[in-house]
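Suppose you are handed a protein chain with no further information: no name, no annotation, nothing but its sequence. What can you learn? This example shows the usual starting point.
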Amino acid sequence: MANPMPAKAIPAGLFMGDDRALRCGWCQASPAYQHYHDTEWGFPVTDDRRLFEKLCLEGFQAGLSWLTILNKREAFRAGFANFEAEQVARFDARDVARLLADAGIVRHRGKIESTINNAQRVIELRREFGSLSSYAWGFEPPPGSRPKRLTLELLRSMTTSPESVAMSKDLKQRGWTFVGPTTVYAFMQAMGLVNDHLQGCHVRSRASTPVPR
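A reasonable first move is to predict its three-dimensional structure. Written in structure tokens, the prediction is:
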């Protein structure tokens, strides 16, 4: 448990939870959001299924909040075969119609069809790189390019990065859709390619654990 801290001493962008721990302010809305922040967001991920899921859900998030998508994540998993790329790649027009009728997800034809397309592209990437993980982590920024102390002011200015721009461009050239630089940077934040927990957040040091190679 974190040490108590007077409210006036809490750095900008953080809040103190009921457990007295400081967290990034964006997760304040609900206990489920705080659990996601504490146990998932920013922790390095190398599992292909989770990486593919996150790329897809970031695409669905465009124009919405991540909390909206998080609250629907189990319905998305049920509708999209748990984001197993080989299964999603075989979806056809009947699956598109089924998903468009599923009130549990975001019913956007373009994003649904994009997910099916991108599943097919994942299989191509695996043939070339061995895994989606190997491909994605090839765009990890060098440590020296990251801020030593991440403040709210800095974070607000970091909606993309040279690496997210490069990855977005490469994915688009490979036929992926709904993978703009901002979407890719959000993916990098969530999957731990960058650690954007603010300075003072009680999770920041735990999320800095090196990814297993």
